[in-house]
Every structure is written in C-alpha cells, then in structure tokens.
Design a protein that fits this description.
heterodimer, A: mainly alpha, MetI-like fold, globular, B: mainly alpha, 13 helices
Chain lengths: 303, 305
C-alpha cells in the first residue's frame, strides 16, 4: 500500500507491522464478507429461479382483467392473495418476478460462457503465439472495442428477431473483449515462466503446454471476469428488453416488466419499482461476489 | 512520439474502415432494402424495378464502396420515413446527443474527481469506504430504471424538473445525471489510485518540505499529474455515453440520434441505422485515439512497446 509514512513516522517497527497486519486481516475478512453476502444473495436467487414452479403462488402468464394493477402489500386496498400486486393484465406480480429470475440468470450465465470461450481462445492464442497472430487478434479486439454494444446489439436483435436465444447469442458474441484483453496479458506473463520453457524443452506439444501449463495459471482471471460479465449481460438484457428488442412478451423479463409498467408510472410507480429493485439486488450480489473473488485470488489487482 | 502517432493513425484508419464494413453489412443483412422501399404489398416486378432504380441489383461490394464514398461526402441517402435526407436528419439530432453526453461527462467528473481525491487523502477512512460502496451499489442499478425513478421523484413528486423532452437546459438535468452517475465509479477509482501514487512521490514531499501550503501542493503539484489518465479515461467514457444515450434518450423522449436510432431500428429504416452506427463508431475510434495519445504522452513506455 502507498502509506504516507512521512506524515506520521512509525518509530516502532513492531507496531507498524501489527497495524499492517490488522489492515491486511480486515481486507481478507471484508473480501470474505462480500463473497458471503454476494454469494448468499445470489444463491437465494438461484434457488428461487430453480424452484420457481413450487414457489410462485400463481401462474405467471394467467391474466385476470378484473384484477388489474392491484397494489402490493404495503399499500391500501391490497389483496392478500397477491402480495406484490398484479400488473396491467392482472397477472400476479410476485409470480412473474420469481419466473423473471430464471430469464436474467440464464442470460447472464449463458452469455458469460459463450463470450468466455471466444474471449479466452482469442486472448490465450494472442498471448501465447505473439508476433503476427497477436497483431491480428489485437486488431480484432480494437475493432470490437470501437463498436457501441447497445447500438449493435439492438440492430442485430432486430435482424434475427427478439427472443431469449437471440439475446444470449448476440451478447455472447459481443461481450468477449474483456476476457480477451485480460487473458492475453496474463498469458504473456505465464508464457515466460520457467515451467513453460521446461515443458516445451521436454517436447510437449503446443496444445498440451497451453492446456496444462498456461491455462491453470490464468484461469483465476477467467472466473473473476466471468462474474462481472454475468452482471453486465443481465443489465444489457434488461436494457434491450426495456427497449422492446430483447425478450418478448409475455415472458416475464424484469427489463420488460419495467417497460410494460412505464405507462403506469404516474399513478402506480410500484409497477416499475419492484422489478428494478430485483434487478439491482441481483446485479449487486453478482458484482460483490466478483469483487470478493478478485480480492481473495489476486489482491494486487484491487485498484 | 511522432512515430507512435503515425502508427496509431494507420491503425485508426484500418479500424475505421473495418467498422464501416461491419456497419454496412450488419444492417444490410438485417432487412431487404428493396422490399422496405417498395412497401408491404409490392409485387415482384415492383421490387425488381426498385432494385434497378436504387442500384440494389449490383454486387454488395460495389454497393458498399458506393455507400462509403457518398458517406465520406456527407451523403447518407434517404430515410424511408422522414422527408429530410439522412445527413440532414443526423445533423439536426446530433447536437442534442452531444450536449447530453457532454453534460453526463461533466456530472461524472464533478462527482468522481473530488471523491477520488478525498478517498486518496484518507485511504481506508470512512469517506473512502462509503464512496467506494456507493460506487459499487450504483454500478448495479440499471440506467434506464434510475432515469425512471428520478423522473418519478423529481418530476412527479417534487415537481422540480421537467420529465421529458429537450427544450430547455432544465430538461437535461435528470438525463445528464442518469448518464453521468454510471460512469462515475471508474473515474473515481482512477483518480484515487492516481492520487495515491502521486502523493507518495518524492516531489510532493519536497513541496511540503519547502513549506508550500497543503492545498497548493494538492492542486498544483499532485492533482495536475494524477488527472491526465483521468482525462484519457474521460474521453473513452464520452464514447460510451454517446452509445448509452440511446437508452437515456428513449426514457426521457429526447430527440437525439440515440432516440432516432431506436425508432429507425423499430421501423427498419436502414439508411438511418447505417449512418448512425457509422458515426457513433467513428466517434468511438476518434476518442479512443485521443485517449491513447494522452496515455502515451504521459507514459513513454507505451510508445515503444
């Protein structure tokens, strides 16, 4: 750490060491804390999504026009059968919220896997081989970084038609840049290690050097980026669905629920408040988990 | 530096060219332009005629070259929906988006830099922790939802600001904040780490030692050096904001190119989408170039690698 020791010189080295250790310990604990909290909340949401059919009190698709826009439990005139109220078509909001978690998680995880495979393949190839291959891949990365994600994603989703699969594929093929950049530089560092030279010297084929010597040493970066990309993809799906070019009705995507509630903003703001809070909690949990994993696995990258 | 700049310019031209190819083919593949021009119930003969008139029967590569050369002269073709040419349309809408992105950037710098400096002066203090926690939490809030919530709070409940449109400067307050808060955390982090590094440098100790006032040391000696990477980052963030404007403009119904892009995508108005995609990409490329130059000027090691 950049201690400004000039300001208050610590004459007692033991004391300094101890305070440093306390600080360090605090860091570790707080990292674990964010893993615990983030992981715990995320785990709860995953369970909620997995057991949605058991947990949801109603069918998320069944409409009842006689019960439109019933308010949630903290407001007057609420209906105890619909704890979070109903939407403009009379569908139970809690049930839609629970099923919506499936969509967000599916998009987040599938996108992170697709983009992770593309990005790591490009990054490791560029980092390991260097030279012309590196130049070409760096050019591909630079080109990708020069394209605005939201605009390109909207245009492509409009091309293939909005659906869950379309959104996953489009985001998967767009969000690989961070993997590629980080894996490239991590591989460049790992490539020059003695054990890699040793493996090459005893005649290991390239694929084996990459898989058993390079990959295990860069994989912790992969996990950290993957968590952040999960969060990124969830937010982007919500934006695309909000703009009407993502998941299509009647599927209960949280972004789409906000879009559908937009016209009732004036008198029933809770219609957009509830799915927005759900989205923020999910993304915050994923980000906290990512922060925690990063701090524990590679504390030097914290800043 | 000159060598670096020249190499960068060549790279930028190549990237810009590639991006223009992608912008053209991506959108062109998304719909049949002839059918769109001819209308829903045109017969095969009419579609063939349209293809002939607009040159759509030529090979795609020829059409691309033709489109690019016209685009370089500012001629982006005709919109299917608006009476104006695409060039006029974009020129009309671009200032709103630029103003929005610029005010978003100002918001994020005005919040990010002071909090970054305070956090660096007292690392691990409560100010540091709280500002970082807020930053982490803020990153989890979707911008469009934040915009709607601000609209409810300040526009509907407190009635302090207009809720939609772009007629006066008051209309820009909520959108600028919505756009700006999301870019604040990276700026705050970079200011913090830059200041931490600079503050531990020898010349800062010297400045304090020769009795300069602490504020003077802070602003004149430390911040000036720590802020250059932040400016480089800000230039990249400006590009992100131009792209983020598409969501914000549709939330607040502002007539910028983001809103225009969204409407045009929904209407399959191909010439407009291509033009906006190309222009925003070129902004990105240009802003990244500026950022690279700033970083290279600051850190000679980047120039030789």
């Amino acid at each position: 750490m950049n201690d400004i020791s000039a300001d208050h010189p610590k004459l007692d080295p033991d004391n300094a060491l101890r305070s440093n250790l306390t600080k360090h310990l605090f860091r570790r604990i707080s990292a674990h804390n964010s893993i615990l909290i983030g992981g715990g909340v995320l785990g709860a949401i995953v369970l909620m999504a997995l057991f949605a059919p058991l947990l949801a009190p109603h069918d998320p698709f069944s409409q009842d026009l006689s019960r439109r826009l019933l308010p949630p439990f903290w407001m007057e005139d609420n209906n105890p059968k619909h704890i979070l109220g109903t939407d403009n078509l009379g569908r139970d909001y809690l049930s839609r919220l629970i099923y919506g978690a499936q969509i967000s998680l599916m998009i987040g995880v599938c996108t992170a896997i697709i983009s992770g495979i593309i990005g790591s393949a490009l990054g490791i190839t560029a980092g390991y081989f260097g030279g012309r291959i590196d130049a070409v891949i760096t050019f591909i990365i630079t080109t990708r970084l020069s394209m605005p994600i939201v605009l390109v994603a909207l245009a492509v989703v409009a091309l293939v038609g909005g659906s869950l699969h379309a959104v996953i594929l489009v985001l998967g093929f767009l969000l690989w840049d961070r993997y590629a950049v980080v894996m490239r530089s991590a591989t460049q560092q790992a490539r020059n290690m003695d054990y890699v030279s040793a493996a090459r010297a005893i005649g290991c084929p390239t694929w084996r050097v990459v898989l058993s010597e390079i990959f295990p040493n860069v994989v912790n970066n992969l996990i950290v980026i993957a968590t952040f990309e999960v969060a990124h993809a969830i937010l982007l799906e919500a934006s695309l669905s909000f703009l009407g070019l993502g998941v299509q009705p009647p599927d209960p995507s949280w972004g789409l629920m906000i879009a559908e509630g937009k016209e009732f903003l004036l008198f029933d703001p809770w219609v957009i408040t509830i799915p927005g809070i759900a989205l923020s909690i999910l993304v915050l949990a994923v980000n906290m988990l990512g922060d925690g994993i990063r701090d524990v696995s590679a504390p030097e990258n914290r800043n | 530096m000159l060598n670096f700049t020249v190499r960068r310019i060549v790279l930028v031209m190549l990237v810009a060219l590639t991006v223009s190819v992608i912008a053209f083919f991506l959108v062109r593949l998304s719909g049949d332009l002839a059918t769109a021009l001819a209308g829903e119930d045109a017969n095969a003969q009419e579609i063939a005629d349209i293809k002939k008139i607009y040159g759509l029967d030529r090979p795609l590569i020829v059409q691309y070259a033709d489109w690019l050369l016209s685009a370089l002269r500012g001629d982006f073709g005709a919109s299917l929906y608006f009476p104006e040419t695409v060039g006029e349309l974009v020129a009309m809408r671009l200032p709103t988006t630029l103003l929005l992105a610029f005010s978003g950037l100002v918001v994020s710098l005005l919040i990010g830099i002071p909090f970054g400096v305070i956090a660096a002066l007292k690392p691990d203090s409560w100010v540091d922790r709280i500002s970082m926690s807020i930053a982490v939490a803020g990153q989890a809030i979707p911008t469009f939802w934040m915009g709607l919530m601000l609209m409810v709070l300040f526009g509907l409940i407190l009635r302090l600001t207009p809720i939609s449109g772009d007629e006066s400067w008051q209309h820009f307050i909520l959108p600028a904040f919505t756009l700006g808060y999301y870019s604040t955390p990276p700026i705050m982090r970079l200011t913090r780490s830059g200041m931490l590094e600079v503050l531990s440098a020898d010349y800062i100790r010297t400045a304090y030692a020769k009795g300069l006032k602490p504020l003077r040391v802070l602003f004149k000696h430390a911040l000036r050096n720590a802020v250059i990477p932040v400016v480089a980052l800000a230039s990249v963030q400006f590009g992100h904001m131009l792209s983020g404007a598409i969501v914000i403009e549709s939330v607040f119904a502002m007539q910028g190119i983001g809103y225009l892009a969204w409407e045009s995508i929904l209407r399959n108005d191909i010439a407009v989408i291509q033009a906006i995609l190309l222009i925003v990409c070129l902004f990105y490329v240009g802003l990244t170039f500026i950022s690279d130059l700033l970083n290279a000027w600051l850190d000679p090691r980047i120039r030789v690698s």
